[in-house]
Amino acid sequence: MGGFMLYKNDNPSETLLQCRLDNLVEDGSISFPVFTKADIQHRSRSSQPLLLIYSLQVSWFFTQFFARLASHQPLAHLELVTLVVTVSNTMSLFFWWDKPQNVGSPIRVDPNSLSVFAQEQEPALLWGIYADESRERHIQHLAQAALMPASEKAERPPTDSPKSFTLGAVREIITKLPIAIYKYLVVKPVTFLYNDLDVLGMGNTGYCPSRALKVNRFYSGPGNSWGIWSNPSLPWISEAMGVLVGGVYIAGASWGRISEVYTAYSFPFFSSRVTVIWKVVSTMSAAVPVGILLLQGLEVSFDSLSFRFPSISTLDTLDDLFCFFGFGFIYITFLFFVIARLAVILLALISLRSIPIGVLTTAAWTNYLPHFS
Amino acid sequence: MFTSRCLPVLLFNAIWHVSHAFPLTISGSSAVVEGTLSEGSTVIRSLSTSSVIWSCLATLLLSFVVCIHPNIPSPKEKLPSRILAQLHIAFWVMVAPEWTLYWAIMQWRSAGWLAKKYAGQSAAFMMRNVVVTFALKK
Hints:
The complex is a heterodimer of chains A (373) and B (138).
Chain A: E1 4-8, E2 11-15, H1 18-26, H2 37-43, H3 48-70, H4 77-95, E3 107-109, H5 115-118, H6 123-126, H7 131-147, H8 167-201, H9 236-251, H10 255-262, H11 272-308, H12 313-350
Parallel strand pairs in A: 1-3
Antiparallel strand pairs in A: 1-2
Helix pairs in contact in A: 4-9, 4-12, 7-8, 9-11, 11-12
Chain B: H1 2-21, E1 36-38, E2 41-42, H2 49-67, H3 79-95, H4 97-123
Antiparallel strand pairs in B: 1-2
């Protein structure tokens, strides 16, 4: 995304978001840029040999993973994480297949006449999409205000700061240090995470100031804000994927025991305390997507019901209620979710210190390919 | 150009080396097991802990490099900032892979909508046999 750059007087002036491009073409300020498929694919820096190596490596990984699963050999938890991430990424590759990779420069778009832009209003008034910018700033402001009340606002009396290293300077540093630590270790990361939740996790437009030279790192189009999609159910694939990821992590909790039952080795995979932590953390990372899926499903179904039976006002109220609870659920559980997923990765790395011998063996995977013998 | 041509070869060499050369060494963290482990699963070679880590890391790195298609950065963006962007994306790929999938699906959808809308119009400007529909997906 961010593939079209509007030029004014031979200088790049702004990256055209989708709806901006659409609007400008419709009112005749620009004509739709002329290019071919080859023009775009030429900008792509993807490499075919790498794709071949990737498919070989992934097919090897999957075969040995499922062969070892079928022969009741233990698996390392790091392999579990790798499996989940690889499956999800490969599905992303399917949807990104036609998108050129690592494009360095956008396509140049020139306006038909400069006079059109001379009297243009504030973008926020013209393009509904920029309303999201203020919304996002509002969210950031709320997060900052909740975590750090009256930050930056406290009026400091104008004191002449001591240049020399005096007791007063030391005292000032000591009093300011906890606040600074809190600001940079808590407030900034949390604000950063919630900003990403809004753009990446919920598909909002993202912070993209008017006349910016790039789109947000995770910009994914205008969303369904214009109602351009008749069937908004496709993104549910990703929610289902989230449930699957959590489910696989939960399944990973019992694998140590499976290895003890089916193989002769009695290496404790995890200590019992770590197993408990793994169970808690993987359940958390599965429960959040399940909750989101459930609340979204209820919201969407009440939405369609209230559309079909407009006379029943209760359905409308329920729709609003589940919308409210859905967003509330996402915003509240989000931090726990991220912490849980990070803990899963950390535990997977820790478990490598004491893995059973079975993990270090490779199954005779050719037995599991369908064949006559 | 150098990375896109040579990196695959170097990486493949590294993976090949790791998966074939290391198992012969017997050190503290590796194990050589012979014979049969359980019914049906014959041990054909043994691995060391480092090779488990290496195969996982190689798979993860490859899937990140091949599958992730980032948005176009600003023309003014410098190298450190671009590397930070890659790390930022990698963080979310590891923590919440389904969100990356969501990102891809939404882009596929919105680009498809734009392509469908303007496929007919831009074809008027161009020669025949020019495929625009999927070309717009960027």
